[in-house]
Amino acid sequence: MMLHDVVGAGPKRKYRVRVGRGMGSGLGESCGRGQSGAYSRSGNSSKLGFEGGTMRFFRRLPRRGFNNAAFRVEWTTVNLGLLEKAFNDGDEVTVAAAIERGVVRRNAVNLKVLGDGALTKKLRFPVGVEVSNAARAKIVQVGGTVAVPPKAKLPPNFRRIEADKKRSAKVAAATPSPDKAKGDKAAKGEKADKPAKTEKADKPAKAAKPAGDKKAGGGDKKK
Fold first, then answer.
1. How do the pLDDT tens digits run along the chain, 223 residues long?
2. What domains can be seen in the chain, in order of their start residue?
3. From CA 107, how far away is CA 97, in angstroms rounded?
4. What is the rounded CA–CA span in Å between residue 188 and residue 100?
């Protein structure tokens, strides 16, 4: 065994970089900090979000209007197929129980159950848990209970219905029906009735030359 083997096996001491020891070292003169500026001085510290003196990004964003991010209610959704695997028959499904069994994340606050998957166990859902219509039908069919009553349907908005009717009537009046368009095209295509062509008067037939004359003339020539 050699001495360097023993020393090499132990903890190694890291020597700090010595700066300002001549230009040949590469870290002389300005010691790697640059020529000037705040970062070349000792004791410099910048605040979070500092961007070199320019207007910071979050201060350049517009602040007009209403933002619902601080008031919105976030729901953590879970399907019935996952609850079928995680819970036993007759269990109560709450947010705390879902977090404990690893069904949802630990930061879940509000829980909503969706109807994807098959359910064969009788589960109970208290007031704090929302249930979709599809999930409610499956839960009740199996024999489970849902404490939250189904939401009542909103009354019809008669103003919107009347506005939709007027809009559809305007569109129908603006666009001609195909039958009417065909009739217009046919009316434009009809030409004025031209007067009936009068039959040309029969020209007098040319007087036929007697056949004997030709023969006589021919006979004279032969002679």
1. 777 777 666 667 778 899 999 999 999 999 999 988 888 988 888 888 888 889 999 889 888 888 787 888 999 999 999 999 999 999 999 999 999 999 999 999 999 999 999 999 999 999 999 999 999 999 999 999 999 998 888 888 999 999 999 999 999 988 876 666 666 666 666 554 555 555 555 555 565 565 555 544 545 555 4
2. 75-146 (3.100.10.10)
3. 13
4. 79
